[in-house]
Amino acid sequence: MVASEVKSLAVQTAKATEDISRLIMSVQQATSSAVSAIERISGRMHEIDSCATSVSAAVEVQSAATGEISQNVASASNGAKVVVSVLGEVSGAAAQTRHSAESVLTASQSVEVAAGALRKDVEGFLSRVAS
Question: pTM of this prediction?
Answer without folding.
Answer: 0.50
